[in-house]
Amino acid sequence: MPTPSATPPGSTPNTPNTPGTPGSSAPDARTRARRARRCGPVRHHRRGLAALTALATLTVGCSALRAQDPDPARASAPAAPPAAGTPAVQAAQGQAAPAQGAQLAQAQAAQAAQAAQAALAAMPAARPQAAAGQELNGRLAAAEQQAGMQRVLAAARRWGLAALPLRPPAPPAVKPELADGPGVKRLPGLPPVVYRVPTSDKVVFLTVDDGAEKDPQFAAMAAELGVPMSAFLSDYLARSDYGYFRGLQAHGVTLDNHTLTHPDLRRLGPDALRHEICDQQDHLQQESGTRPRLFRPPYGEYTEAALRTAASCGVTAFPLWNEEAFPDHLEWRYADQKFHPGDIVLTHFRAPSGDWKGTMPDMLRRVVDAATAQGFAIARLEDYL
Q: From CA 151, how far away is CA 113, in angstroms rounded?
């Protein structure tokens, strides 16, 4: 059995040949010199770039952290230099970097420091500026509200009101449920007929029918006082000047349906009902840009067929009324002759005549004064129906 040969005493063990030095067990002096000239500067250059990269990263990272620090005192404190003996410092001290690499690192560090200082400089000023802006906005809002009240007070005096009209509350977030009961009549699947809106708010609703009289003084008075109302228009009376009613609409008056020619709906067949109700829906949408949701039957008379026809062309409720207003008096449905929350007041666009003793401004003054005296505000009907 062959046995491994032992290394003779005093001899050197065989070693693999080093690449580039075939047939020799160790490089000679000239080989070592060539390697030093070829590899030494490259290795030193790479280690120098690595050290500078680490140092630049550390500097930029610290600057970014200072910019995000919510504590101004801590964020504005200068960053401490890296401690002696840390790997980054040892690498930087032990190696020399090329001039271009050093300039690049310094530029990156300077940019990061400038960005951090700019962010820190902006932070303390942000809070006082925001607070000052909020205070200014609050003062402007209060001034505008005061100016608005002064305008309404001046208008109330100019139009001869007994007192400043009461402001209605904000519209309800959810409109009242119109279930069959007191003040509301409802058949399944058909629009409700509403005499009184079910609400506890001390509000009443002013509604003006027909459209024969187009008094500019009435329009000016309603706009200056900010009185909301709903106009139920019949086309044969309103068509001579729909521009007048668009002017009212621009000041918050809603334009609703009161048929084309003001007939008694109880006497009409299906085709005539559709013509009177749905064609007026189309006319009003064309004239006002809005399709009405509310319909008032002429004379307060209606049938189940009228309810069904109106529903088919977009009507959602039939508001009737509790009181009727004239320039010289109010007519009450109930014996106590008082307003109740949710009452609907009827009046008309009319000129002075035998049974209309006064003007449209006279009528509006009487309604507003009566509501104010009883502690009621006038609200917009469409906000509740």
A: 57
The SS3 assignment for 223 reads helix
**In which element (H, E) is residue 139 found?**
helix 99-158
* Residue 16 DSSP class: P
pLDDT digits (tens, 9 = 90+) for 358-383: 999 999 999 999 999 999 999 999 99
Which pLDDT score is estimated for 376?
98
DSSP designation for 299: G
pTM over 0.85: no
Pairing of strands 230-233, 254-257: parallel
Q: List, for residues 6-35, the tens digit of each pLDDT value.
A: 443 443 434 334 344 334 444 555 555 555
Enumerate residues 6+ apart whose C-beta is below 8 A from 135.
none
Work out whether strand 230-233 and strand 203-210 pair parallel, antiparallel, or are unpaired: parallel
Q: Report yes or no: 204 and 371 within 8 Å, Cβ to Cβ.
A: yes
Say if residues 178 and 194 touch (Cβ distance below 8 Å). yes
CA distance 248 to 288: 11
